[in-house]
Amino acid sequence: MTLIHLGQVGELETAGVRPPRRKVVPVGDGLREGEVVVLRGPGGINVLVELRPGTTEIPGRGVVDLSGTIGQPAGTGLAWAGATYQVDRPVLSDFLAHLRRRAQIVTPKDAMYLLYLAGVGPGGRVAEAGSGSGALTTVLAYAVGDSGQVDSFERREDFLEVARQNVASAGLAGRVRFHRQDVVSDGLGAGPFDAILLDVPEPWEVLTNARSALRAGGRLATYTPTYNQLERTVRAMREHGFQDIRSLELIERELHVGDGGTRPAFDMLGHTGFLSGGRRGP
Fold it and tell me: Which domains does the chain have, with CATH numbers?
């Protein structure tokens, strides 16, 4: 059995082992040898391991034998290291928490709303410009399902390699085609797409090619960090005939919940980026 990632207190940390390329397993099936599972323990501990017969040493935690969980339902209990763990299939949040980062990622709060703005769903054909570390790519691949396809475009090979590894570690490599390509000069030639998402420094420079690659009625969504970028992007979207344009920012604040003492947490996730969406007109 190969250790893939190790983490605690709700986070998953890279353990320096390149994850295998694997497929998403149907949720209702029993746990299968070769898939990656998450051991969920007390205090928010999460450990990702590849499910194999025999034992493996987990640094700082000892040795675990998962042989008896092969073929068992996801969520099966396991007594290990003096505590009870659940052997479960990882969900999207597990994979996003352990992403290897080469570039700044689109946060989950923004990524999920970008899906909404772009109308991304099962079976969709979606393009992304700016692969970065592959966080948004992973979310898109998860959303389109087995019958969908994501084409991810990136100019930098070092970013592409990290994005490929992160998507593969989530078991979604079969849903994504990566392209080392400048979408400003070379376009997005694999269309027509149902949706295109832009996470690049100058989205307005891509809009001519993006509009050509979108099907009629297809959706465009953009992510821009500054007001100046937002203004230029929306102005260009209007000039290129996009309709139903809206822009917004999401602020995330957790709540500290206690009996008779519920209040907002002191810390919050404030500005990360501005989101815009629109529909290609006739």
Answer: 3-93 (3.10.330.20), 99-280 (3.40.50.150)
